[in-house]
Amino acid sequence: MDLRNIAIIAHVDHGKTTLVDELLKQSGAFRENQAVAERAMDSNDLERERGITILAKATSVEWKGTRINIVDTPGHADFGGEVERILSMVDGVVLLVDAAEGPMPQTKFVTSKALALGLRPIVVLNKVDKPDAEPDRALDECFDLFANLGADEDQLDFPHLYASGRSGWADAELDGPRKNLDALFQLVVNHVPAPRQIKHQDEPFRMLATTLGSDPFVGRILTGRVESGRAKVGASVQAISRVGQKIEQFRITKIQAFRGLGQQDIDEAVAGDIVSLAGMSKATVSDTICALAVEEPLEAQPIDPPTITVTFGINDSPLAGRDGKKVQSRVIRERLLKEAESNVAIRIKDTPGGEAFEVSGRGELQMGVLIENMRREGFELSISRPQVILREEDGQKLEPVEEVTIDVDDDYTGAVIEKITGARKGELAEMKPAGVGKTRIIAHVPSRGLIGYHGEFLTDTRGTGVLNRVFHGWTPHKGAIPGRRAGVLISMEDGEAVAYALWNLEERGRMFISPQEKVYQGMIIGEHSRENDLEVNPLKGKKLTNVRASGTDEAVRLTPPITLSLEEAIAYINDDELVEVTPNAIRLRKRYLDPHERKRMSKTL
């Protein structure tokens, strides 16, 4: 059967997973009466809840005698480690662009990787049936993007289609028949070359492992594209690392190929096809699986270095062990090492005491997803504030800088520019209109300056602004950047919070807790209205007497507390604070200090 391997690239919420749903339906991958969930490729619970693609996944459709392997790539730069490996498996890319928004930062990040690999793009202008769609402008911006990223003449001479993924049509002309996706299927078959590996079927077997999975019955599963030769079930093969070191020899116990949304057992894998192998015990991502006669490994894509680090520690608060079952440092370490094995963008390092672990990654969202997965698995953790990783070159300290693209109402433009170019040490790169009453701001801001900024940004723009960021490069260190200005309210007692006490404390600041919630000494229960930290007593009840007086029976009406999400909590804390994460709660607290230090640092109410 004729074969094509493609990846679909798109910014977050540009309709990539919805388009894949329609490709599967129209290719006959589902039965007529089969019940299929929306966004079928987003199989992970977190992906469905957040509406983003986190894990790269492959599927396969058949169209008029051609099998098309489709890889759904993550749209967020924090999960770029997935993207870099996946693109090495395909021979072409479909760039999906919202006709209203045009190419966005995450599009730029993944597209630069694809162009560097020499892949020829197909541009699909999606959502052209929206009222604010401007497909011609979006197409011009795509051409400018490719030119800026150093595309060659073949890549700049790209075909394009107008489409609506939700309605299930794609046409070469804007006023086309709008019936189905046949035009996209035909363009993929005509424009994307067949895998060059097909010519090497008579050579020894070689495959580069790009993703790692596990199965309770067959163990480790490695997925990749067969670069040469054939692999049969029961054949003896070996694994070689990127540097040429032989890791292990093993017998292939199972070969699976992608068919629709599922995987099907096959007896033989041929060059050019994307398959999963089982039987190994040590081989991992970026290793070469090959015949015993092969000596040299395949070249693996280098992975961009991590930019932030977060310290994961055991939960040592007084409320530890009440929600979760996995609380020991040994269990936490095993889980983090397992994560680092399958996600090459994450690095784990033990701290000197052995009770905590430094986890380095691409961004706050990537860390937030890892922590959220762990708490759902029953872990209890204490998490530090993210720290930016610095590097030194020629005796000069360098820090990572991110390109920030902001779409905001004209009324809030001044406040946003003042924040990012002032205390946060950003530099304005471009500013232009982005539709009626909207402005697009592009700035280069140090990663340190963006930690904790998103919540402030939503407040400044009354929740209407959209902020996207992507790694831009390294720049000389720009000096100190001030953190959170407001102090915090710290509990000085252990017990359950009392409504009367919280009511009296409202004039001191905004609360993070509700009545009857358990608190302990050192726990942060609210944000102070001033810059200093303040120790308060949330357990102080009302004094009862037998004398009635006016105002005694005044009703207690509390303002609803602020509920911080996991990412917001991690970004909110200062260096001397921690986030306590359990399966049922997210709490903030001070790092534990001796009594004399606490007395010196805070003023008691």
From TrEMBL:
Q: One GO term of the cellular component aspect?
A: ribonucleoprotein complex
**Which controlled-vocabulary keywords does the entry list?**
Cytoplasm, GTP-binding, Hydrolase, Nucleotide-binding, Ribosome biogenesis, RNA-binding, rRNA-binding, tRNA-binding
Q: What is its EC number?
A: 3.6.5.-
Decide whether keyword GTP-binding is in the record. yes
Subunit note: Monomer.
Family assignment?
Belongs to the TRAFAC class translation factor GTPase superfamily. Classic translation factor GTPase family. BipA subfamily.
Q: What is this protein called?
A: Large ribosomal subunit assembly factor BipA
The source organism is Lutimaribacter pacificus
